[in-house]
Amino acid sequence: MPGGPRAILDRRGLVRLLIGLAALPASALAAPPAKPPSRSKAPTGPKPASARPKPPPPAPLPRQAITRILPFRTAPFPYRGPGEDGRSPFFNVAQGRRRGRTTASGEVLWEDTTYADAGVLLHVPASFDPRKPVRLVVFFHGHGSSIDRVVSDMEIVRQVTQADINAVLIAPQFARLAADSSAGKFWQPGALARFLEEAAVRLTDAASVNAADRPVVAAALRAAPVILVAFSGGYKPAAFVLDRGGATGRIVGVLLLDALYDEEDRYARWFTAARRRGFLVSLYTDSTAPRQAILIDRLRQRGVGIGTALPATVQAGTAAFVPCGSIMRHGRFVLDGPPHDPMRVVLTATRPPPPPPKPPVATKPAAVRPPATTSKARPPAKRPAATKPRSR
Fold it and tell me: What CA–CA distance (Å, rounded) separates 363 from 13?
């Protein structure tokens, strides 16, 4: 037989295998079901804006204290216009090409030595922060002075810095080293507004840390209220800028340091109109006492209440006239007062008072349960003892 016995067995095994497969159900022959895909967590997207923590406010940019004297186009001098009366020329003496003017005392003051300095002192403290309320302190010096001498002898830079009111200092040069209160350009209408605008530009250049800081600094300086400080002969240019300087609405305070020899009506008009937003403080010696009395009388006629002591807090509506003793104090009054450091003391008093502490939140007292009354347990009633029946 072809193939031999092994082949016969193979054919028989194959037939049996086919018969067995035919007998199986179709489900047994189907491919195993595919495993369902594993459920993985959906990727988490960004949290909603409300759930994100707010970033901390930007830290103030580091600054350095800046003190400079720069020439200003809008400074009081040089000046070529008319005198105080608005008609006669300011310079009324000529000597060759030199021009000068004769003062009330008969002294001739020359333009090239007395009225040619356009310097303005600018000071920005290291603590200056344009993101907080800013103030401008504008200082007008007196007779026989200069800006560099004001810085060294009167220490106004230190006083403004130590007052810690986030203020910058601006001090223009008037007549240099001369007994003269001429206001120069500050006699002209709108002069203070133009001067403050140039100061804002110069201070922005000096105080900005970077390009992003410039618009913040510029906006803060242009909106800053002004505190005007005048010493001695600085009273006259101060009176004119209050009257016609074009920035009256920005001036929120006037500090006179033994500085009133005339112009009482201009000061009285300003404060009467500005007392709801501004203050007037005058510290004076016997040197200006008669004129102080005239101004006090003018203000009282307008219904202004007058204080005769320096209040702890100087605020809108404050009108204080404080006598400070002998005329011998006048020369060093800006530094020695009294009080010592008068600029620092008064500027510090203009800080707004701290807000009152918040009252504690009222909480309902916890309900106190009355103590449980313990009733004394009654002893159980005694049962009568069983009596044995008597035997008869």
Answer: 95
